[in-house]
Design brief:
- This protein has a single domain, classed as Aldolase class I (TIM Barrel, Alpha-Beta Barrel).
- The protein has 377 residues and is an alpha/beta fold.
- It is globular, with a radius of gyration of 20 Å.
- An 8-stranded parallel beta sheet has the order 4-11-10-9-8-7-6-5. Strands 1-12 form a two-stranded antiparallel ribbon. A two-stranded antiparallel ribbon has the order 2-3.
- Helices cover 38% and strands 12% of the residues.
- 54% of the residues are buried.
- It has 13 helices and 12 strands.
- The structure holds flavin mononucleotide (FMN).
- Flavin mononucleotide (FMN) binds next to loops.
């Protein structure tokens, strides 16, 4: 018979360690407990291994950094409403994202220039995501060519994120090649009509290292002035070009989400771009309920921005997300530990999610009821 405080079986050994069951001391459980993930310490560690201007480029937001500062707090302005006596003996994190099976609903958001964080860049990130059973989204601005990222752990599902480049033909070519390379979806990032003003980069006079490989495109200046701007019509155009379902990333309004769906989007991704574009904007946590309501069950909805714990992820699932994505935590993992670091971050957050679900009487990430959370106010 398990001691009273021994939780049900969940993915990950989150009651590990050599001590007797129930010994929840830091030293007894920390070393091999995936849920014992200290992201604040990891961020500090990453700062220690990165050149200061690169660490600032990864960490920073735009303008006043209000959006950046509020992101995590906004998830935590909700409170969980645990269910008791529900007989939950196991928690299932596996789900399907646009038909691709994953072992966790916590994936890797697209982030640029991963070779600045680790020499193996996107390849290491892909290996880490695959080890955790998580979906990876590769950026247009990757250090590694899109076909090489796709060929790393090819059975592990990946999406390709598309930016509007200076050359429309180049942009279209990337969309076609993403379809051919085996990506499962095309993620159109629509919150970057022009680049946000990131004042840390200005202060640091930050420039990409001259020897940094650019896998998919030549250097771009801030504004793609000579390229036609995107409209809702581009959603179906890129779906046709790539042969892939299109996810629209960077949506913060219900009316926009509904128009994306009308225009042929297969999913909508609620995001502030990590606080790096317009600022101050409504947080993902505040926008998600309106967007989930606007699109109903028609398409999947994802969210990112400031997800730093399993309970943040659970809050997003309750508010209508099918999956959540992390940007900076994956950066910290890659910078400090390569593929293993990425997988530890994803496994840790996933174990925390499972743990919190067990505590809340929930057994399946595919059916987290909306009334699992209530506003803290
Ligand atoms: C350093 C950095 C680079 C990013 N590069 C991209 C990118 O190339 N394409 C994109 O769509 N989003 C990009 N993003 C935004 C992320 O996809 C994601 O929306 C954001 O990081 C999520 O917030 P979080 O970092 O708080 O988890 C980037 C974010 C960061 C921090």
């Amino acid at each position: 018979m398990a001691p009273a405080d021994t939780p049900p079986t969940v993915p990950g050994r989150w009651l590990g360690g050599p001590g007797a069951p129930g010994q929840h001391t830091r030293s007894a459980v920390a070393p091999d407990d995936p849920a014992f993930l200290d992201l604040a310490a990891l961020e500090e560690q990453a700062r220690g291994v990165l050149p200061p201007a690169v660490a600032d480029y990864y960490a920073g937001g735009a303008e006043t950094e209000t959006t950046l500062a509020e992101a995590t707090a906004a998830w935590r302005s909700w409170r969980l409403r645990p269910r008791v006596l529900r007989g939950v003996s196991a928690v299932h994190l596996a789900t399907s994202l646009l038909g691709s099976q994953v072992r966790t609903p916590i994936g890797v958001a697209p982030w640029a220039y991963q070779a600045m964080a680790h020499p193996d860049g996107e390849r290491a990130c892909a290996r880490g995501a695959a080890a955790a059973g998580a979906l990876m989204t590769a950026s247009t601005s990757a250090s590694t060519p899109l076909a090489d990222v796709a060929a790393t752990e090819p059975l592990s599902p990946k999406w390709f994120q598309l930016y509007r480049l200076h050359s429309p033909t180049h942009t279209e070519d990337l969309a076609r090649r993403a379809g051919q390379a085996g990506y499962r979806a095309l993620v159109l990032t629509v919150d970057l009509p022009v680049l946000g003003r990131r004042l840390r980069d200005v202060a640091n006079r930050f420039a990409l290292p001259a020897d940094l490989p650019l896998g998919n495109h030549p250097p771009q200046t801030a504004v793609a002035a000579d390229s036609p701007v995107w409209t809702f019509d581009d959603i179906s155009r890129f779906a046709a070009l790539s042969g892939l379902p299109v996810v629209v990333k960077g949506v913060l309004r219900g009316d926009d989400a509904a128009r994306c769906v009308q225009a042929g989007a297969s999913a909508v991704w609620v995001s502030t771009h990590g606080g790096r574009q317009a600022d101050p904007v409504v947080s993902s946590a505040a926008a998600l309920p309106e967007i989930a309501e606007a699109v109903g069950d028609e398409v999947e909805v994802y969210a990112d921005g400031g997800i730093r714990s399993g309970s943040d992820a659970l809050t997003a699932l309750a508010l209508g997300a099918t999956a959540v994505f992390v940007g900076r935590p994956a950066i910290w993992g890659l910078a400090t530990g390569g593929a293993d670091g990425v997988s530890r971050v994803l496994a840790g957050l996933s174990a925390q999610l499972a743990h919190t679900m067990a505590l809340c009487g929930l057994s399946d990430v595919r059916s987290v009821p909306r009334d699992t959370v209530t506003s803290a106010r």
